[in-house]
Structures are given as C-alpha cells and as structure tokens.
Amino acid sequence: MRDALKQSEISDLLLEWYDRHARSLPWRVSPDARRAGIRPDPYRVWLSEIMLQQTTVAAVKAYFERFTSLWPDVTALADAEDDMVLGEWAGLGYYARARNLLKCARVIRDDHGGRFPPSRPELQALPGIGPYTSAAIAAIAFDRAETVVDGNVERVVSRLFRIETPLPAAKPELTARAETLTPGSRPGDYAQAMMDLGATVCTPRSPACAICPIASFCAARAAGDQPRFPLKAPRKAKPTRHGHAYVARTAAGEWILEKRPEKGLLGGMLGWPGTDWQEAHPQRAPFSGAWTEIGEVRHTFTHFHLVLTVHAARHVEPTEGYVLRGDNSFRASDLPTVMRKAFDLAQHFLDD
DNA sequence: CACCCGTGGAG
DNA sequence: TCTCCAAGGGT
C-alpha cells in the first residue's frame, strides 16, 4: 500500500513536471494538445524512434524533417527506391536501421493495410522494432500503458533505486522497477517525461538534482553518490585497422563507386573501391590507373579506429561491377561519413 | 550473452 | 587527444 502510493506520487510529479517543461520536438504532440485528444501520427513516432536509436536529438532533427518532407506517410516511404532512402540516411549512421526501415514500411503497406498496429507484440514483430521501440510507439502513439526502457530510463531508475548491479546485467531489474512506476493514465506523456527528465535533468555527469521533481524519492541522491549510477561493465579497447581507398573519375568525368554488400559495416551504402580494413593492409588498386597517394583519413567506428590511405587518379577505366555517377547524379551527401571524408580529401587533388 | 553496427558533440 | 555516450536492434 505504501509502495503503491509512492509510485503514483512519482508518476504524478513527473507528469506535472512534463506539463511545464516538455521539450518541443518536431515529432512530438505537446501535453496540452495531447490532453485535448490529439494523438501523434504513428508514422512520425515510428520514424523518429528509429532515427533516435543511439542517436542524439540534435543529429536527428534535420533528417526527420527531410524524410517527412520527401515521404509524408508510410506508404510513400514503402514505395520509395532503396538507394534513395539509403542516400538520404547517409551520415546518420547505423545503416541497418535504414534497411530495416524500408522492410518495415513495406510490411506495414503489404500486410497491415498501411497502418501501424497498436499493440506492443505486433509492433515488436516488425523489422527494426525491438523492446524499447515497440513500447515507445505503443505508449506515445496509441497511449498504451507500456514501459519504455532506454538509456535515460536506465539512468533515472538506477539512481532512484540505487541499483548496484552493472549494466547490461541490471537490465531485467531496471525494467521491473520501471514497470512498477508506469501509470495507467497518460502513459505516453509519462514515457516522454521519463526520457526528458533523463535528457535534461538526470544527466550522466552532473545531474541537476536541485531542480529534479522526484529528488526526494531518489536513493542515490540521499546517499550523495548519484553520478555513480548506472554502473557499467568495463568496455573493450578499440583496435586500429588500416586500409586503402581509391577515388577516381573516368575520362568522361564519372565518379567510380561501388555498392557495399548488404550485410556488415556500412551495408548497402555507396563507397570508394579499396582494400579490406584489417591489421594487414596491402596496397592493391582495384583496377589500373595513374594513382597518386593523397593522404590519410582517420575515422572511428563503433568498435575500431580506421586509418584509410586515400589514392586518386583521373581518366581511369574501371573493370565491370562498379557504379558510375556523373556530376548530375553524384552527391557526396549520399556517402557514409568515412567515404565522404575520403572524397573531400581527393576532390582537392582532382580539381587541380 | 557477446558481439556487431556510425556519428558528432561534450567535457 | 581521448573517453563517454545518445530515445537500441539483430544475430
């Protein structure tokens, strides 16, 4: 009885705080509008949630505006060409998200009549939608009483209950604790309130406990060691890999690119021909040309550092299997960032 | 469960 | 320069 009272008190305080401090975001319906009966478009909720996976709000905004402008609804996106969507996703990272985005849109179009299902199990059966995203869409778009557990919620809950177990082992416990807090009313706003609190108040380094609406309930705050949470397992060191990339144009002025394999790093994206990226790095051009070594590009991926030696040449005739693009169809913005860096370096040389 | 999968900003 | 990490999911 005491616990139930405490839980509803916490969710009430969070909702009151959210009513006053909710961030205004392109995919969000304000708490005022939400209580007036307006629900966000499930398509926009879904798209934003996919983009926001391990990605900052600041980075997502422009991509979200661009995508919703090009493809206003899920059917339009489902009908789009793969290369177009991947090109627009370029620079945002985690490219499997873009491939799964298209798969999901087409399942919605073909098997669900163009509408997102409202239940969490049905949502989680869709490509690219896991435990977090299914709960987020169900709660935010359909006001289902589902509990979202993202990095923000993990941090807030681990501090609130002062959970000593390190992540990722603590995930089940954190989820169970979070579920006890989810209210039956306004679960969508509550989910967003938890995440806003984690993003703006209960931050990783210097949490602003002085302005936190639930500080009086926080066990870590009481103990004075709140920045210590959540505990995390030590991470592995990143090795450095090396490779060579070859940036060239044909005599007709077309850029010589290749489409990377669908699976794996930068899967399905355009890139410059080159060697594998491993510890050993033999310099071997994919086709003959008057290559000039331009310099190095450094780039860090999720689990390794890359040093890429960039070569350039003009008037090259490639062998079969490459993607040729003239200046009217080539956009550096279609390239993943490491490939765009190589282009920036080589362009300076090739323009001379 | 462990590993793979990007990027850019903050401190 | 370097570490951390941001609305995780797939395998």
From TrEMBL:
One matching Pfam family: NUDIX_4
Segments crossing the lipid bilayer: none
Gene3D superfamilies xrefs: Helix-hairpin-Helix base-excision DNA repair enzymes (C-terminal), Hypothetical protein, domain 2, Nucleoside Triphosphate Pyrophosphohydrolase
Entry's EC annotation: 3.2.2.31
Cofactor(s) named in the record: [4Fe-4S] cluster
Reactions listed under catalytic activity: Hydrolyzes free adenine bases from 7,8-dihydro-8-oxoguanine:adenine mismatched double-stranded DNA, leaving an apurinic site
UniProt GO MF annotations: 4 iron, 4 sulfur cluster binding; 8-oxo-7,8-dihydroguanine DNA N-glycosylase activity; adenine/guanine mispair binding; metal ion binding; oxidized purine DNA binding; purine-specific mismatch base pair DNA N-glycosylase activity
One record GO biological process: base-excision repair
Domain HhH-GPD: 51-200
Cofactor details (free text): Binds 1 [4Fe-4S] cluster.
NCBIfam families: mutY
Family: Belongs to the Nth/MutY family.
UniProt cross-references to PANTHER family, sorted A to Z: ADENINE DNA GLYCOSYLASE (PTHR42944:SF1)
Role of this protein: Adenine glycosylase active on G-A mispairs. MutY also corrects error-prone DNA synthesis past GO lesions which are due to the oxidatively damaged form of guanine: 7,8-dihydro-8-oxoguanine (8-oxo-dGTP).
Stated name of the protein: Adenine DNA glycosylase
